[in-house]
Design a protein that fits this description.
three-stranded antiparallel β-sheet
Length: 109
């Protein structure tokens, strides 16, 4: 379990065309039903609880693709559009194309 505070919404929250499949749930029972189905299908996902809603982001398995050298891999924050790198040089050299390519690796095919 991790907690976070952001002044601005994560990119996933503002983008209707976000590449990763995601669902918002207001009813806890609906969320649990969906999560149980993901478990049955052995489907990886991330959950975020925010403002009495549950966001479920569905993604590819981490061992199904090779991530770029500038990242240690994509967890919930990165899957929702955040960016973290191991050093400032990698961060400063990234461009929009590289970020989109890496995020698209998580799309279920």
């Amino acid at each position: 379990m991790q907690c976070f505070v952001r002044e601005k919404p994560l990119p996933l929250e503002n983008d209707k065309k976000y590449p990763l499949v995601h669902y918002w749930f207001e009813a806890l029972s609906d969320a649990w039903e969906f999560i149980e189905a993901l478990h049955r299908d052995e489907q990886p996902y991330h959950l975020i609880y925010q403002n009495n809603k549950i966001l479920c982001v569905v993604r590819r398995r981490q061992d199904d693709y090779t991530h770029a050298n500038w990242t240690a891999g994509y967890a919930w924050y990165e899957a929702c559009g955040g960016v973290s790198t191991a050093n400032i040089n990698d961060f400063n050299s990234l461009d929009e194309t590289e970020l989109k390519e890496e995020l698209n690796k998580l799309v279920i095919k």
